[in-house]
Amino acid sequence: AGDIQIQQNTANSSQNMDKSSELDYEQVIAILNEIKEYFDFPKFEETFKENTDSVKQVVEDTITACQNQEEEGLIKKSLRVLKELAIGATGSLIASGMLALLGQIPI
């Protein structure tokens, strides 16, 4: 319902609604580069266990996709996968930090 606009008790007036839902590729790259910094933390592998390589690969692939300005639907899907992996690593400051960063992107 985010694309609805209601105007009441007005005569001869109009409104325009601008909605920018385009993905900010530069913002995504900046956030993913921050997440990449977590890769070097000793607790990173402990946090993601068998998913460590998957998390790293998704981050790298998504950065490349953003640099190439590929379809935003696929990029958002990758970001949702990262979010799910971070949610699965509950109780970790690294995962919490990732979720906070990912929360800045409308996905």
Short recap of the structure:
By secondary structure, the chain is mainly alpha-helical. The chain is built from five helices and no strands. The two termini are 16 Å apart.
Outline the structure in words.
- This protein has helices at 25-37, 42-48, 52-67, 72-88, 93-102.
- With 107 residues, it is mainly α.
- The chain is elongated and about 65 Å long.
Layout: helices, strands, pairs:
Blueprint: H1 25-37, H2 42-48, H3 52-67, H4 72-88, H5 93-102
Helix pairs in contact: 1-3, 1-5, 3-4, 4-5
Order of helices and strands: HHHHH
Strand content: under 5%
The first-to-last residue Cα distance is: 16 Å
DSSP E strands, number: 0
Number of helices: 5
Share in helix: 55-70%
Shape: elongated
Low-confidence stretches: none
- Mean pLDDT metric: 88
Structural class: mainly alpha
| Main sheet properties | none
Rg (CA only) = 18 Å
Name the descriptors:
107 residues, mainly alpha, 59% helix, elongated
